[in-house]
Amino acid sequence: MGLYIETHIRADLDDLWARTQDPARHQRWDLRFTEIDHLPRAEGEPQRFRYATRVLPFLTVSGTGVAAGEKERADGTRTSALRFSSPHPLSLIAEGSGYWRYVPDARGVRFLTGYDYRPRWGRPGALADRLLFRPLMGWATAWSFDRLRLWLERGITPERARRNWLAELTVRALVLALCLTVLGHGSPPGLPGPFADATAYLCPLLLVPGVFLALFKAPLAGTPAARRCLRAPATRTRAPRLLKALEEHG
């Protein structure tokens, strides 16, 4: 099953196009890539590119892709399709294809993507992809789309958005750790009997909101979040269009 991600960005279509089609800007907001570079091409040839992802400080997985085509409809909708592959033996993705679609409306642009790929390593690779890698790729794409939205709508650079996310994640982890520590130790030692009993009773009740806030509170407005993006077409009628687009540009 292919991946689908959609967001709405209150921005000019040309600005959105530039920050997604220019490799130097693209690699700033897309969590999936560390480097993206256009490769030399002769006039009339499709644009090829190289991408790389730093998995560990000492390990980088790379691949190549080709722009399969671009279309612009009379209503202003634009579509950019591509194919990609990686010969790297440690890359779970062997080859794949996908597209980006830009649909302008009165409030901005609906920006969406559909893509799929073939995992390598046989059955173990297919199992690892289904249980771990594919959900991670879907989350990373959605998180990156929201980071792009913050850049265009609020002027929050991708670098600052990442710092916001790490800071909020750290605070949530500290709050959760504090709540679990207090809950595990119960009331502080040395309190008189009645106070100790009351504290032992109230502590769990007071800690519930803390745990809830740490785990479930919506992220701050300046923090990117995958949950803000659609992970499936809003209506079933769009699903065949996704498959048709992949077939047209595959």
From TrEMBL:
The chain crosses the membrane at residues 169-186, 198-218. Keywords: Membrane, Transmembrane, Transmembrane helix. SUPFAM superfamilies: Bet v1-like. InterPro entries: START-like_dom_sf. The keyword Transmembrane applies. This is Membrane protein YndG. It comes from Streptomyces lavenduligriseus.
